[in-house]
Design a protein that fits this description.
single chain, 435 residues, alpha/beta, five-stranded parallel beta sheet, four-stranded parallel beta sheet, 12 helices, 25 strands, binds flavin-adenine dinucleotide
Length: 435
């Protein structure tokens, strides 16, 4: 890997997401050698992926080169590598570019889509967990309309113009709202020869309300906003099967659609090789103590979505959101240095700053500790918080101008099929164990 030998302890961080970047910044210019590994050479701002999928933002504006983040950091090395497994006995990692030894290991690999074992859904639905998947979804949405323009068959046209989004958490709600805005304001201008009364956006949710983790008032208001935009919501409905055309559910409801978007669940992205008992099987998250140390290990830590810190208050760990990841990353940087200096460690305590979701133009809901508000003010707050959380001045500027353009012109600027979406072939699906 071409990492120089050093007298300093080597900290290896796997993953440059919110948690990995937070700890990397905390270890800047400290007396350690840091090696940061990621399978991508960029950090992704996942909360805005849905805007890439719905042609509001270009992918480059929500991603940031990792090498630029760590530029100028002393004794810091980034390597583009997919980590395959951990050998804790040898204190060594196996990666796509070779082996690497560590003194301290930090697992910050985030999460992956959870299809709850449904192979057909995994095979035919669209997920939205990274930039590649978001671009695939953008291409598919636009390709559907290009095909619909050519189709003389009403049933096929409806399949192409109907969208089913599964999961009414923030991602599903934001995506359904954005698709509805495309239907109402944009697509009819692009495709004047199509009848948009044939287009449906269906949001399917297993629980009895949208945004279940938010307050009653925000959940109710978000539902109202979605209904105003024309989204059909199906509660207490679970998708049981999908063959690429027909979506079956646990009720009598069936949908015909060429696009099923799966926003119904995530699970941890634990790395192979940890001792039995360290990984919670169904959640695929790594069990950690209050210092984010992996249970039963001395020098291995896990932070962010992949880590599960079970406490009396939070028996299923912290919510898989950006704030716990950032806060754990920041604290672990301090704790690692403290432990090397023989000082006492500080136990992690999550400071919940609240949550928010946007449904569309002038429509958002915000839950803060002492205040809850919805509507246009919440929408401005949502935009401000997301803008300020983006990495890099360039990205903030590009996103800001895109949003102003979208607002003033009621338009979205990136309706491009740059790379045609191709479903995976049998061989690729077999490799991913889907068939
Ligand atoms: C569509 C979407 C919308 C979201 N919206 C919100 C929101 O509005 N608010 C909010 O708080 N949270 C939101 N989240 C959740 C939030 O993005 C995550 O909680 C957060 O990204 C977790 O940070 P992390 O560092 O643990 O993982 P990530 O940010 O996922 O980073 C993990 C990193 O590890 C790398 N990696 C993974 N496996 C390997 C490997 N084997 N080898 C090398 N590198 C690897 C990945 O490439 C990635 O860079 C959203 C998530 C999604 C998918």
């Amino acid at each position: 890997m071409n990492i120089p030998e050093s007298d300093l302890p080597r900290v290896v961080i796997i993953g440059a997401g919110f948690a990995g970047i937070a700890i990397a910044k905390g270890l800047k210019n400290k007396n350690v050698q840091v090696v940061l590994l990621d399978k991508n050479n960029y950090h992704t701002f996942q909360p805005l992926l849905y805007q890439v999928s719905t042609a509001s933002l270009e992918p480059d504006s929500i991603a940031f080169p990792i090498r630029k983040i760590i530029k100028g950091f002393k004794d810091f090395y980034f390597r583009l590598a997919d980590v395959k497994s951990i050998n804790s006995g040898k204190k060594e990692l196996e990666t796509s570019i070779g082996k690497l030894s560590y003194d301290y290991l930090v697992i910050a690999t985030g999460s992956q889509t959870n299809f709850f074992g449904n192979k057909n859904v995994a095979k035919f639905s669209m997920a939205m967990k990274d930039l590649t998947q978001s671009l695939d979804l953008r291409s598919l949405v636009l390709e559907n309309f290009e095909e619909a323009v050519l189709s003389k068959n009403k049933q096929r046209r409806e399949e192409l113009m109907n969208f089913v989004v599964v999961g009414a958490g923030p991602t599903g709600v934001e995506l359904a709202g954005a698709l509805a805005e495309m239907k109402n304001n944009i697509l009819p201008k692009d495709y004047p020869d199509l009848d948009f009364s044939e287009m449906e956006i269906n949001l399917v949710e297993g629980a009895g309300k949208v945004l279940e983790a938010m307050s009653e008032v925000s959940s109710a208001k978000a539902q109202k906003f979605l209904e105003e935009l024309g989204v059909n919501i199906y509660f207490k409905t679970f998708v049981s099967d999908y063959d690429g055309v027909t979506v079956s559910t646990n009720t009598d409801v069936k949908f015909k659609t060429a696009t099923l978007i799966w926003a119904a669940g995530v699970m941890g992205a634990a790395v192979n090789g940890l001792a039995e008992g360290c990984v919670i099987e169904r959640a695929n998250r790594v069990k950690v103590d209050v210092y984010n140390r992996v249970v039963g290990e001395k020098d291995i830590f896990a932070i962010g979505d992949v880590a599960c810190m079970q406490t009396d208050d939070l028996p299923r760990g912290h919510p898989m959101m950006a704030q716990p990841a950032i806060q754990q990353g920041k604290l672990l940087a301090k704790n690692l240095i403290a432990s090397m200096e023989g000082k006492e460690l500080i136990a992690f305590k999550y400071h919940d700053k609240g949550s928010m979701a946007t449904i569309g133009r002038n429509k958002a809901v915000v839950d803060l500790k002492r205040m809850k508000f919805q509507g246009i003010f919440a929408w401005f707050i949502w935009m401000f918080v997301h803008l300020m959380s983006l990495v890099g001045f360039r990205n903030r500027t590009v996103v800001f101008f895109n949003w102003v353009y979208n607002y003033v012109r009621s338009d979205k600027g990136t309706r491009l099929i740059v790379r045609s979406f191709k479903r995976k072939n049998k061989k690729e699906l077999e490799a991913e164990k889907f068939v």
